[in-house]
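Re: the request from the purification team.
They wanted to know what the chain is likely to look like in 3D before they choose a buffer screen. I agreed to run a prediction and write the result into the notebook, where they can find it.
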Amino acid sequence: MDTAQQTLMEQIKQERRSAKTVLSDSLAEGIAGGVVVVLSLVGLFNLAPELMLPVSAIVMGVAFLLESKSISVRILRLLGNLPKDELSGEQPHVGVTAEFIAGTTGVLLGFLALLGWRPLVMVPVVVIAYGSALIFGSGLTARLNDLEDESSGAPVCVTRLFCEAVSAATGAEFLFGMGAGILGIVALTGMSPVTATLGALLIVGLSSFLNGTAIIARIKGTLRK
């Protein structure tokens, strides 16, 4: 096997490893989002709502951190497919994402709330951060999916179908972020803070669950090739 073939095989193996990493992170993200949905519903049914608030916030923070890692790996996969001369000899790297900031904030403030330090302030602030991350991250997610579709080599009709589906999902993510942010602000004003915050966490958890399952479906298609 010549050098060109060895390089090609190594690139294929590296891409499959990256795809499996994204798959495992997205699976964990979807599970975490589903857990947040369940915990929020439990709290909304008035079963230990004061405990459900910080626990849901922490779990959701972990989901955002997993999503941030998944986004970084997907970007590096795309950069790895570019010709080396287009990278100007620099090592590809990904900066801090909105999801990483929101996830870190959520975990830290969630633990403070769990310890009893002003939970009806900490958790609403967290859900506002989560809503903001969904709003600011929706554009990046859409563009990232477009680039992956363009580089997938799929037929035009299939790519167009993916683009339409992604546009709908991006719009939903933006609306989820707006809804969560509004409910977080309402909670900070003191209007049914527990119910409003749990409702916001329910929305964000549902968004994370849908996002994780959507990426899993895309990556599974890649691994079948």
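For the purification team: Residues 155-159 have pLDDT under 50 and may be disordered.
Please add any questions underneath this entry.
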